[in-house]
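Bug #77: duplicate submission created two jobs. Keeping one. Sequence:
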Amino acid sequence: MNMTITNVDIGTVLLNDAEFEDATMTVASAATTYDMGTILGRKILDDAVTVVDGTNTGNGTVTAATVAAGQIIPKVGAYSFVNTAVVTNGGVFDLLDPDGVQVASGISLTVGAGATTVVNAGGLTFTVTDGSTDFVIGDSFALTTTANGNMVVFEKDGAGGAQIPLAILTYEIQTVTVTSLVIRAGIKGTYKKERLVIHSDGDDSNVDSIVRDQLRDYGLVATNVFELNDLDNQ
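Kept job's structure:
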């Protein structure tokens, strides 16, 4: 007897042991389709960071402040960027988190009249521009992050939580003009690796071992499956 086996994909992403969470998902405003199997992250923080000058002697500026891409996610609240040394056309700064804990020290600005320095520290990135009056010791800036909490599509190089895969969309979503909608996302269970989707890729080609390990950390097991639904015995 010969047995011919045909692998049939019955079109689902979920295998078993699912748990779900109702959540708000932030989506693109233009018409977009989010495929079943789309991996999601949770946007812990908005990308934008608000900057407020202290009562400074120096008139240099801090601009273009955002939450940086990468695995470090800043805390919610006001960070302090404080000058600790007088340097002509420059300065040396420390960065303290909202709890007053030093997260970076000895950040030396590029020296030069009007020079700019891009700072990446503590999960934040921003640009410091030298002014016509030098910073003195104690001059400071408050850089405030804002909590979000919505789910978003997972991005390997995302920021503020989008870079951490922790949920899976188990059905297709089509949007028109809305910027957010309520979804039910899988947050536990076993899922077909072949059906997972990184939205920017449109498929599972970059769902590598690192992503699968991250998913597993949140109780989401991505496994390779061959479905044997059609057996032709001869």
